Amino acid sequence: MPTKLKVLQVIPKLGYGGAETGCYDIAHYLNENDCKSYIIASGGELTKFINKKKVKLIRLPVQSKNPIIMLFNAIVISLIIIFCNINIVHARSRAPAWSCFLATKITGRKFVTTFHGTYNFNSKIKKLYNSVMVRSDLIIAGSNFIFSHINENYSEYLNTNKKFLVIFRGINTDYFDPSTTSEKDEDSLFKSWELKVGKKIILFPGRLTSWKGQEMFLDSINKVNIQLGHDAFIAVILGSDQGRELYKKKLIRLVEQYRLTNQVKFIEHCKNMPVAYKISNFVVSASIEPESFGRISVEAQSMQKPILASNIGGSKETIIDNKTGILFEPGNSEEMSKKIIELLNLDESTLNQMGIEGRKNVINKFNVEKMCFSTYSEYKKLIN
């Protein structure tokens, strides 16, 4: 094995998603363990936080699905591999993975992929395009759910001689720590969101898109109001529509239709998510399609907040039902409303105990240190 491991991670864009933050965390972890660390990305907000002394950032249009640009990227990545003497290339998305696949074939270097989601495929061509994520020397699934998904849908592309395993995604439990938020920041956010003292706060984070279940959530809290009246809580739907203006207008119309205008607040962005979790009483994740991991559920637990989530996908693995949160049948607004009422009626000590168990769960299984160590260990095994 070379004296210094050199790893190149390639990702379309460094934003704030799970794949992106995982890439960022591992890049800095490698440097701390005496490895050379490189990232190729087209840009993104997270790039400004990269420590340039620890991680070399190279900008390429790797977000493009244009075959000509993908081929151009493959040539450039091959040159970077040779010039920097890279040992391992780790791709985290399909378009750049094809460029990396070609580059590692040309240079004879090890190729790693992380399968981050259930990529849609409605044709053989699309499935072939997706299959690059299982053509590597080491295939990492971010959850048991994703592991099963790959086995069920891509078995014809899997090579039994290649390593295929689960490494759970992790979050920074030092950042998502309830003891680190200040009262000043909490009060400031409470006022800026125009929340009311004495009302319970239900937080629903996540981008505004139909499969995240915002419509069902509004239907559920309308049912809650029929049972409890309109003074029991305020719901904060936190997330950007990312250009889905029609969908947001639909949600606003539902709010008006259900007469929830004084109870539901739409907040587009929050720079300090730990504080957002801290001022809430509990958190909701109502996805009607499987989450590959479910970062919201893990962040909420780390902040000692009970999480109400769909019993589907990654949430089934990250939440201990009735101990760190509550699971409900996906797409069932009737059951969801009953679970919301159940959480609203829980006494403070029970909610606190659920929060304590949630943080223990995340520290034991889903912290970023564990994810980075496991990935680094697999890199070393691959080179050996």
Give an account of the 3D structure.
With 384 residues, the protein is an alpha/beta fold. The protein folds into two domains: 6-170 and 367-383, 3-Layer(aba) Sandwich (Rossmann fold), CATH 3.40.50.2000; 178-365, Glycogen Phosphorylase B (Rossmann fold, 3-Layer(aba) Sandwich). The chain is 43% helix and 16% strand. The chain has helices at 18-32, 67-84, 94-107, 124-130, 144-153, 183-192, 214-228, 245-257, 273-278, 295-302, 315-318, 333-345, 348-365, 368-383, and strands spanning 6-10, 36-41, 55-59, 88-91, 110-115, 138-141, 163-166, 200-205, 233-238, 264-267, 282-285, 307-310, 325-328. The strands form two sheets. Strands 3-2-1-4-5-6-7 form a seven-stranded parallel beta sheet, sandwiched between helices. Strands 10-9-8-11-12-13 form a six-stranded parallel beta sheet, sandwiched between helices. Helix 10 (295-302) links the parallel strand 11 and strand 12 (307-310). The chain starts with 5 loop residues before the first strand and ends with a helix. 42% of the residues are buried. The mean pLDDT is 94.
Based on DSSP secondary structure assignment, what is the total number of beta strands?
13
Number of helices: 14
How would you sum up the global shape?
Answer: elongated
| CATH topology tier name of the largest domain | Rossmann fold
How many discrete structural domains? 2
Strand content: 15-25%
CATH architecture of the largest domain: 3-Layer(aba) Sandwich
At the fourth CATH level, what is the homologous superfamily of the largest domain? Glycogen Phosphorylase B
Strand arrangement within the widest β-sheet reads 3-2-1-4-5-6-7
